[in-house]
Design goal:
Radius of gyration: 20 Å
Helix content: 25-40%
Strand order of the largest sheet: 1-4-7-14-9-12
Number of strands: 16
Shape: globular
Order of helices and strands: HEEEEHEEHEHEEEEEHEEEEHHHH
């Protein structure tokens, strides 16, 4: 587990961040089309508005937290971290880093149990040199994980109801996060134990949702798309959503344990018999970049593991090859610069000017 005192201090810092005034403090930390990390208060899942504000913080490109966040050595596909200053929150950065590292260790231990549960010796090939390594070693040494601090408004604070209905196209169906599965290996979810608002959909069902009722300082573990693909569907991608409490704010923190950007994930040979692989190889770097572009620019149907099924006629594996020939995983992904390698000819990515410059702002009080 994780030390109780660390969880409590992290939760205090988490709440303190969202008490900062929007202008000028939080607004200076906006993520944007060329940097996936930072603050956001207007996000989309599968072209549906999510009602939340978040701060995304990821493993530095250098893997050295002692460097300044904007040091060029920290450059990576997701960009650079954007923390509030120590003047505003003196203990915030150090506490978040300790919590991040604790969940980094916990994620590895959970992954070991997942491997043992299937009784296999795993390996995937690294996209840089084609060598084979233990997938567990690769996840531990090269993961591209990030931590999302989130706050969700009460439904009573969502303004301009007509606009909400137009954006969601379904009356009274407003979610903190709309239904989706996560792109990576697994997600460690620290929820608000006073609000039972997280729901997980039963595998194979369209509308059978189970409400998660977390105990204080407990975690919910969600399996992601990459473990679904690697396990050849032995592990399912967990589909979940966040409801909004009627009357109060709620906080949650999600740690996304993701493969390295250069990792090529394929079905494990020990879990497939001859000609029974369910999927073609998937570049995690491409998969992550496209999901970010889709959420930011609303490109259409969200990329999923279904696009990598052997029987699929999706163009993503083909576009993936173009992306890998041109992308530098050590440089921040830019939606506009990379669109010719991730979009079909008929698609057109047009981002609002505010998105290109600073990010997207919502209408939450």
């Amino acid at each position: 587990g994780v030390c109780t005192s660390l969880i409590e201090e992290f939760q205090r810092q988490h709440i303190s961040f969202f008490k900062l005034p929007h202008f000028p403090l939080k607004s200076l930390l906006y993520r944007f089309a060329g940097n996936a990390r930072g603050y956001l208060d207007h996000d989309f899942t599968k072209q549906r508005r999510d009602w939340k504000e978040c701060l995304d913080i990821g493993i530095p490109g250098s893997r050295d937290w002692n460097l300044k966040d904007d040091d060029i050595r920290n450059s990576c596909l997701d960009g650079f971290n954007r923390f509030p200053t120590e003047i505003e929150l003196p203990e915030f950065r150090s506490t978040v880093i300790k919590y991040f590292q604790a969940l980094e260790d916990l994620s590895h231990r959970i992954s070991v149990l997942m491997v043992k549960g299937l009784g296999v010796e795993m390996s995937v090939s690294d996209g840089i040199d084609g060598t084979e390594k233990s997938l567990l070693s690769m996840l531990k040494e090269e993961h591209s994980s990030y931590l999302r601090l989130a706050r969700y408004p009460p439904r009573s604070e969502i303004v301009d109801e007509e606009q909400v209905e137009a954006e969601n196209d379904e009356k009274s169906e407003h979610y903190g996060t709309n239904a989706h599965s996560d792109v990576g290996w697994l997600t460690i979810f620290l929820d608000d134990p006073t609000c039972f608002t997280q729901q997980v959909r039963m595998p194979g069902s369209e509308d059978d949702w189970i409400t998660v009722k977390p105990a204080p300082q407990s975690f919910t573990i969600l399996t992601g798309d990459m473990v679904n693909l690697w396990s050849n569907k032995k592990y399912a991608s967990a589909c979940y959503r966040m409801l909004l409490d009627p009357n109060k704010h709620q906080h949650s923190a999600l740690y996304f344990y993701n493969p390295g950007y250069n990792t090529i994930v394929s079905p494990c040979m020990e879990l497939t018999e001859a000609d029974t692989s369910e999927f073609v190889p998937c570049s995690y770097g491409y998969y992550r970049a496209v999901r970010y572009a889709e959420d930011l620019a609303q490109l259409g149907r969200e990329i999923s593991v279904l696009d990598y099924e052997v029987k699929s006629d999706s163009k993503h594996p083909e576009k993936q090859e173009r992306f890998l020939k041109n992308a530098d995983m050590n440089e921040p992904f830019n939606v506009q610069n990379y669109r010719k390698w991730i979009q079909s000819k008929k698609e057109d990515i047009v981002l609002p000017l505010t998105t290109l410059k600073t990010g997207l702002r919502g209408v939450i009080k």
